[in-house]
Protein 1
Amino acid sequence: NGGRIEGGLGRFGGLLSGRLLHGAANALLADGPQPYGYHDALARGEVSLGSGTLSVTGFRNEESVNLDPLLGLETQGLAFVDTPGARSAATTDAAWSNSVVSTRFHTPVGAWRLGATAALSDYDARLPVGDTTLTIIGGSSAKAHFALNADRPTRWGNASLGLSYDDVRVKERTDQIVGTALGTSSRSVRGRTAGGYVEASRNFEGLTVRGGLRADAFEGHGRLELSPRASLLVPLSETALFRIAAGRFTQLTRRSDPAVESELGIRVPGLGDEPLLAVATATHLVVSLDQRLTSSVTVGLEGFVKSFNGLPDAGGDRVNASGMDIRVARN
């Protein structure tokens, strides 16, 4: 079931919505409880302040899958285990959840358009594995993001610049129950990043050239990371557009959650010495061609070559990827 309320009054506007998956139909049509759980809620408010606009958005969702419908593991008395994951789910459910709260303010100042953003987000998940011995693998990450941006038109095109600050906290935890004994291992890490960028674009008789440079400083990294990027858009006709883009991106990357390496028996690795967070870079070259077939249908063909360095799961080795995508979009 779901519902939505939206409206406005003068300078104010707002929206409320929510969805819930219940087990009423499952109780009538199936034998047993609903194995899948889901609910979410979204709230948004906006107000005009002089020539500017302030908006606040909040979102929360929780999902779960019952991996033990016969409750065979619940008899181990594990309801007291407090692991990361949606707290409303049962102990033997695989569960994950997201929470986001963001505030944005935009206003013109002279020829510039200024924007400010503050956002908090949280993600957590847990996965129970095992048959006679239950292990619950949990992980969570929380992020605070703050940004200031400005852009303006110029005689030759458009210019933009900005500053940002991010604070990321990551935690892993493993609870293993053997009989009535509970063994727990956990670790956490924090990473902070400050950065800024400049970007400009110009139109040359239909051709659009865009270029920019971003600089990021990562806590404990020891050097400033520079990430240049550029793109060229060439209209081949009134209905066809060619694009080529290249660039480098650098960001904090979280390693994958520990894998469960078995098909029938369960073997859960411990929390190794690999870093939870690492500074990773991606270099890419993308070439695409889009063709508008009708007023509402567009077909696109895109080829890419990418190279990744510093990924925690790659052990410091370079990882390469290439491929081609075909897109069909209808307006």
Note: DSSP finds one helix and 15 strands in the chain.
Protein 2
Amino acid sequence: AWFSNKDWTRAIEDASRAIEIEPRFARAFLKRAYPRWERGKQLAEVGKTREAEAEWKAAIIDSESALRIRPDYVAAYRARGIFRFRFRDYEGARQDFLKGLEIDPDDPDLHMSLGVVYMKIGNYAGGIHELTIAIEGGANPNEARNHRGSALLKLERFDEAIADFDVAVRLHGTTAETYNSRGCAYSARLLRHLEANRRKEATLDFERAAADFTKAAGMKERYADPYVNRGNMYANSSRYLARHERTQEAIKACTEAMADYSRAIAIDPARCDTWCDRGRMHEMLAHLERDRAAEHREKAKADLLKAKSLAAPDWPRLPELEKLLRHLHEEDQLPCIF
């Protein structure tokens, strides 16, 4: 009951009393592990990082205690795998899910969890295989199809990805993330339509993507992803329009992209990608609006320097950003990015 009410402290206390009464009660250890993990998340949300990590480590220890008592305890392997996954120990998580499947090869939740691990390490084909087994075995269809749709999207199998997201959207409990993911699939497919000069199909996918991103942003407070993704869609459209000398339409698309990037920055100001992307749009406008080139160049520099100040040394886009800054500081030449 305490777990259902999200009273993690009392849930932990009750499980601890059960363990005191019966020290080899494996299920009680597992019942204590989950609320410990959840209490750790609560502590992390208020900035108590050290206390949160202590709770998370205790949750892993409890799941290990359950496995020492019952080495065939499938739920404990899944729990420890989930905890390890959240600690970014993807290999440890993979091993736990595989061990659980050795004991119960038909467990759909384990197949789904394993599929998510494969996605995280870049094995999208492996992820799709496991998630398909999970769907066929009766795993939560909303969650499983969301994950499989995301893997299909990574492999640019856009029609299949959209089909999975469509099913998820029709199901009860659809989340903002589902709409955001389907919007990404439409947005990616429209680029393929543009490359093939299928302008009607591209327009339809643009409208569908925009609607999904708008829906996602409205469903979840302070959710930056749909603004970033809608901004990226406008940015890609502006480059296409500029290449085809549709200057006024390109300027409008640039402006829409920057507005979405600004909304995302207001929600998550530490996101260096978004600062970089808005800086690129200012740079592009310096080409499109020659009478305001100096203004746009200065704004581009400011955004790119902000992105650089936030970036980690191994940020993949750092070479791109530094190259743009070098060009912007040259007086006689601006880079052409479209």
Note: The radius of gyration is 24 Å.
